[in-house]
Amino acid sequence: MSESPLPIPGAENPEKLTGLKKGNIKKVAAGIPAVVSALEMTVSEAGFQRGMKALFNLNQKGGFDCPSCAWPDPDDERSGIAEYCENGARAVAEEATAKKLTADFFSQHSVRELGNLSDYEIGGKGRIAQPMHLPAGGTHYQPITWDAAFEIIGKELNLLDSPDQAVFYTSGRTSNEAAFLYQLFVREYGTNNLPDCSNMCHESSGTALGESLGIGKGSVTLNDFYQAEAIMILGQNPGTNHPRMLTALQKARAHGATIISINPLPETGLMGFSNPQTVAGVLGYKPALTDIFLQVKINGDMALLKAIMRILLEEEEKNPGTVFDRHFIEQHTTGAAGYLQDLKRYNAQQLAVQAGVPYVQVQEAARVLAGKRRIIACWAMGLTQHKNAVATIKEIVNLLLLKGSIGKPGAGTCPVRGHSNVQGDRTMGIFERPTEKLLDSIERNFRFAPPRKHGYDVVECIKAMHAGNAKVFFAMGGNFLSATPDTRFTAEALRKCRLTVHVSTKLNRSHLVHGEEALILPCLGRSDKDMRNGENRFVSCENSMGVVQLSRGVLEPVSDQLLSEPEIVCRLAKTTLGTRSMVHWDRYIEDYDLIRSDIERTIPGFTDYNERVRQPGGFYLPNCNRAGSFDTPTGKAHFHIAEPQVPDLKNDELMMMTIRSHDQFNTTIYGLNDRYRGIYNERRVILMNAKDMQRRNLKNGDLVDLHNRYDGVDRVARQFVVVEYPIPEQCTATYFPETNVLVPLTSVAEKSNTPTSKMVILTVTRHEASA
């Protein structure tokens, strides 16, 4: 007799506390504590010899690319000591762990038992060592051969009424080679259902930049930071999410750049940084990074940007040609006159109130920018996960265009990607809305007609699975359930599938909330050797700034039953498509150079791919904005007009944004501490302003339940500990994935369809313990 489904509520993310311990908010990031933390985890997980071998090859030329964030490596010499950050080392430690899960582990632990663990506990179990199968009605995963696993998938895919009843998800870890083969297989199979993690993070950036500037990528290189006069950082916490960026900011500041940080939270990494790779850092020298900190309310960014530009416009009108780059505007843009005319109807002081920033601070930022021409704007999910995310990012572009700060050294756009090859996946064609050029190229080169109808993005695929319109879910990496919004709804959607399949390195919650039948396919990680015919093969990745470089693992895999992602795709394609395929999949398994040769003839920018990727440090892909041009219908950059949005909150309502802790990367939980924010041993916390706490008669340590009632649905996250924190009034912050249950699937950004995880309207009630 099979076990019943996991208990509700809380099954998808157990509602248990671990015991909050409160410390002081740190004033400086990194330093020796970061080094100690990284080394402790590396040695404990992988052992000294294995762990040090991995770290010494991490992000080195000829080594392997960090499986964590997509911050670029230096073009010139790289640190021989540590060309990585604390969280990069943790990501490698997780992957290089000596712990492994064999059939014995799964026979001893049922799916229900594992599902009652926290995400931290699940992730700490170790590497999956062999393919595992959960049959329909089963309670435990069972071992299965690779051939049998592919037969199950191929059979289910071929039984579907339409290829559009299958969904093929991709995480940002997948290499260029695997991503290219994956999208090629999916399109030959007959669908464009290729949702990916971009849909949930920087889709808004790609949409805004594509419409405004003609390319959905940032325009700057790492060297531009060292030539910049001003750097704006909006909605981003690099100290936790992109720690190596702090080194670049420190160097930029030493070269004279003024750094303006805009965020609802005063994040430690932006306030101070002790570089552990320098003598000063080792000695505890704590230089400030941010010159001007503007603490906006949640989603106050557009109002703040307009306030700054309104002040700049007044100065430009007083002294024509001294503030704006009129030549650049006239030669390279369209829509400036209409935009400036619309800007005149705003009052800068009123906009500052709307943004929640004192007007004197807005004036200070405007004075700095008035005399600068080389300006870089960086941003992350603090901007992209709002209803007006696309319009807000276009407002950043408006500012840069007025200043002529695109297409010149030390200036441009810098959306900071959160996963190591998420940008490369999109370049390779992982996109539910492919361009006609890409589809034409595939048809020309591979002699089959790819589907032209757009597929499902993440939000659409969840709705389709829930409605019974998608019956097979295949994930190339990632932890889909914990990454997506509206956790309970998404879990119901996955459980309605006939088959769910996950290509993974480690156990995660998505393996435990499954379809009628489920498979886990264990793959090689970035740090693992990929041996074939005596050769350790390499793959390639693209970082946030468009550099493509090789990645070659150095560690012996924990099991001889792991396959590389390219081989998994090829064998899946062979089994599913059989003799009707026009692609020679066997050739790709044997020789990755053949994959890259076909990428070269299919995807623009990869001329001499095999030769250039072998050059130390790799090569830059073409970027029209970097070259000073704009691939728009007019050939010019476009100004866009939008209205700042002000949420209409009731007296008892608050705005909530989801954030990461320092012991976390995306959905991977390394530990239970958030030491920069002074929070230890607990993740179920809600950061609140002291005045908001007083209005609700709450104090530090009180237990509360969080409610979101968007669209008539009552979403609840229970048992959260109140923590007083310096956050603006009416604003709160919580960690994801614990509060993804509160993020409505139906609340998405305009145009990009990205879930609004940084703007959740909630009420807070005291938690009443169940009888």
From TrEMBL:
CDD domains: MopB_CT_ydeP (cd02787), MopB_ydeP (cd02767). Its cofactor is Mo-bis(molybdopterin guanine dinucleotide); [4Fe-4S] cluster. Belongs to the prokaryotic molybdopterin-containing oxidoreductase family. The keyword ATP-binding does not apply. One of its GO terms (molecular function) is molybdenum ion binding. It comes from Dyadobacter sp. 676. Residues 654-757 form the Molybdopterin dinucleotide-binding domain. This is FdhF/YdeP family oxidoreductase.
